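Each field is set out as follows.
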Amino acid sequence: MVFRNADLPGLFHHADALAIGRQQSAVKLTRTQLSLLVVGAAAAALPQVRVGSGLQLLSAVSALAYAGVLLATFGAARRHAASHWQLNRSAAEFIKSMCWRYAVHGAPFDLSAPDPDGLFVARVEEGLRELKKVGWRDPREEGELADGGLVTPGMRELRARAFSVRKETYVRDRLIEQRNWYRRRQETSRRATRLWSTAITALTLLALFLAVLGTFSVAQQADVAGLLSASAAACLAWSEIRRHQPLISAHSLVEQDLMEMHVAMENTVTERQWPQAVYETERIVSPQHTDWLARLRS
């Protein structure tokens, strides 16, 4: 049996789509702010071009760039794209994790649960209420999404299968998929770290070279050095915002934990131990766990 995201409830898909949209918006806004700061510094550093009797064209460009940064900052404060991104991502991953636990008899939805459907709905709603306290908006309450139920036919079908089928499906479609995702993210973060580290080093070395020349009065390149410094600072800020370096360590640790859990599930975990093993796996792949590891490594 195959269990995919398409088998998850509509509330997951709505939160997931919102998280992707808000993430793209937040990243685009930050990129625009940093780019405008560099453009403003570049326009101020280049030789001025006079237009008409007294207008300095590049100074005007620099002023417009800095004004654009202020407008973008004001827009970011109003839209709260970053916070909405994190809240909807937390909601989507929470729902997905609970659905997997329900479908494969993970704790607390194992065979001993007297009413697994009712318990599942109660636990999901309880978790979503906690998210609403910190700003998450429930689309069902605002008419953006019809309440189609939290338990889908695909979830019920997988839950009704034998232990061997549930185990095989969970290991293949959840655990291995997550391991592969964390491995891909590590490679992406490593490439980005190399790229931005190289750019920062090159810009800083060039600024240092010009500063040394200026120290011995060989050349006066203060404006160019300032532009290089602004560019290096923008690269550094972007790298820090994306958290590439701490995420490499965090994703590596999560992948290692998942590998150990994979080995245990394939070799030593019995049907009696299965509910707790699934619970522990879902704890490992939770965004909160990854974020905690990233903070420790930053």
